[in-house]
Amino acid sequence: MVKVVVSGALGRMGTMIGRIVDEAPDLELVGGVDVREGTLFGTEVVPAARIDAFLKEKKPDVLIDFTVAAAAVENIRAAARNNVALVVGTTGFSPEQRETIRGAVEGHVPAVISSNFSVGVNIFWKLVREAARELGDYDIEVTEAHHRYKKDAPSGTAKTILEILDQELGGREKVYGRVGETERKGEIGVHAIRGGDIVGDHSVLFAGNFECIEISHRAYDRAVFAQGAVRAARWVSGREPRIYTMQEVLGL
Ligand SMILES: NC(=O)c1ccc[n+]([C@@H]2O[C@H](COP(=O)([O-])OP(=O)(O)OC[C@H]3O[C@@H](n4cnc5c(N)ncnc54)[C@H](O)[C@@H]3O)[C@@H](O)[C@H]2O)c1
Ligand SMILES: O=C(O)C1=N[C@H](C(=O)O)CCC1
């Protein structure tokens, strides 16, 4: 049995992950952490301030974190202090927060950290890399759309797309939205849309003369992220103490 604690337990993702873990015969849901009060499928949800004591008491194998960036950094540090493996889906980290996470995790605990746990997006990233290799002289525009409650922009998935494009094409200038007189040069345009209950859309447009290629992914249900995170939780326990990608989990 892999024992799991979920932080962000009462959120959109935390609740869905809690249900999947609760229903899995090979996993044991031992509780949750949140700043709000509640329970998670009959297990205790403790305030974030008590995370250290809770991890010591419950001794989970894995902490799955879907919270907000500042909170996730603290939860990751707590998990590392208590020798608990990690699955982190939270997005919106600053470069400094990423460094803090790296320092807390590397050499201490195994952690799968991904801006997107869906299988489809992990394949989509591979397709974007392949297209960038072949179409580097085309104009490139990255567009993402999410629900009205999303806190960070651009999305973590879009930032990962930009990292892939940087790796393949060098660090091109990014232009976040365009307004006024804007002559197009070699930049990459980045556009974020927020509205309604959009689960998560991403597309990369490669535009040339007389033709365009657009690579897109659309999530219809958060279950694709939640199932991927639980798959990573099963995989991560007992690995070497370093940061892993979801592509490593999937063997891509
Ligand atoms: N990687 C992926 O596949 C993926 C998929 C979906 C969402 N996300 C990311 O996951 C995060 C959460 O998304 P959501 O839609 O579930 O948000 P949400 O707002 O519904 O849930 C976040 C939860 O975290 C709680 N929280 C806040 N501070 C906390 C703390 N210190 N400790 C514990 N819990 C705390 C909130 O009370 C809330 O219940 C976001 O960063 C989002 O971008 C990633
Ligand atoms: O709903 C969200 O928030 C999502 N966040 C991730 C991101 O920022 O890329 C993944 C898609 C859903």
Automatic annotation (TrEMBL):
Binding positions for NADP(+) per the UniProt entry: R36
Pathway terms, separated by semicolons: Amino-acid biosynthesis; L-lysine biosynthesis via DAP pathway; (S)-tetrahydrodipicolinate from L-aspartate: step 4/4
Subcellular location: Cytoplasm
Active site positions: H146, K150
Gene3D superfamilies given in the database record: Dihydrodipicolinate Reductase, domain 2, NAD(P)-binding Rossmann-like Domain
Record domain Dihydrodipicolinate reductase N-terminal: where: 2-117
GO annotation (BP), single: lysine biosynthetic process via diaminopimelate
Molecular function GO terms recorded: 4-hydroxy-tetrahydrodipicolinate reductase; NAD binding; NADP binding; oxidoreductase activity, acting on CH or CH2 groups, NAD or NADP as acceptor
Superkingdom of the organism of origin: Archaea
Residues bound to NAD(+): G8, A9, L10, G11, R12, M13, D34, G89, T90, T91, S114, S115, N116, F117
Keywords: Amino-acid biosynthesis, Cytoplasm, Diaminopimelate biosynthesis, Lysine biosynthesis, NAD, NADP, Oxidoreductase
EC number(s) reported in the record: 1.17.1.8
Ranges for domain Dihydrodipicolinate reductase C-terminal: 120-250
Stated role: Catalyzes the conversion of 4-hydroxy-tetrahydrodipicolinate (HTPA) to tetrahydrodipicolinate.
Family in the record: Belongs to the DapB family.
Name assigned to this protein: 4-hydroxy-tetrahydrodipicolinate reductase
